[in-house]
Write a structure and sequence with these properties.
The protein is built from no helices and 17 strands. Strand 9 and strand 10 form a beta hairpin. The protein is rod-shaped and about 120 Å long. It is mostly beta strands. The strands form five sheets. Strands 4-10-9-6-7 form a five-stranded mixed β-sheet, with no helix packed on it. Strands 14-13-16-17 form a four-stranded antiparallel β-sheet, with no helix packed on it.
């Protein structure tokens, strides 16, 4: 015969009643694991970080203790951990913005399940003054300066422009580049573009 199971430690009993109304029974405990569930709860998808190695954690349902969890970054295996009391935690080494973090569960019956998030990793920021050139000669007092920024978040990173250590302009980064105009004062002026990113990290370039 058949029996519909409901969960862990189900009691399945078989009873025999003979024609003299004598009763004999046997009972077994059966652990039924329905289709497993898998969720990443930390970090949240589209999370921004300056840490290259992060901790990824989450929970499972209907997975037997000791089931295997694999953590991938952009399809490359980083870490393998085991389910403990329905929870799991492991590390992932990031590479760039828009990294795909996938977590795969394989239970003891070879059933697979996957959850995926996207993480934005910002490496060390850099500032590059692309115009004007160093030691540039000009007869124009108000000059345009241009440059590019690497590994800084747009609309939340601040750029400050100094001439001879005097603040001349301050604005938010947009489109990973900048352009502004400042007034020079004399021969041998020192131009510094300084960046403060959203993680309070500093970078600068000078001409």
């Amino acid at each position: 015969g058949t029996a519909n199971l409901g969960g862990i430690a189900d009691s399945v009993s078989v009873q025999l009643v003979d024609r003299f109304n004598r009763v004999s029974a046997d009972t077994k405990l059966i652990n039924y694991y329905p289709a497993p569930g898998l969720t990443i709860f930390s970090p949240a998808t589209n999370h921004d970080t300056s840490l290259q190695t992060i901790v990824v954690s989450g929970s499972t349902s209907n997975a037997k203790q000791g089931s295997q969890i694999k953590i991938f970054v952009n399809g490359v295996l980083n870490t393998q951990v085991l389910v403990v009391s329905g929870q799991w935690s492991g590390t992932a080494k990031l590479t760039a913005l828009g990294d795909s973090i996938s977590v795969q569960l394989k239970d003891i019956w070879d059933r697979y399940l996957q959850d995926t998030i996207v993480i934005n990793y910002y490496g060390s920021p850099s500032v590059y003054l692309t115009y004007p050139e160093n030691n540039n000669n000009t007869n124009i007092q108000r000059i345009t300066i241009r440059g590019t920024i690497l590994n800084a978040k747009n609309n939340s990173s601040i750029i400050r422009v100094y001439i001879n250590n005097i603040l001349k302009d301050s604005f938010y980064l947009t489109n990973n580049s900048f352009e502004t105009a400042v007034d020079l004062s004399d021969v041998g002026d020192s131009l510094v573009v300084w960046l403060l990113d959203s993680f309070n990290r500093n970078a600068y370039d000078t001409k």
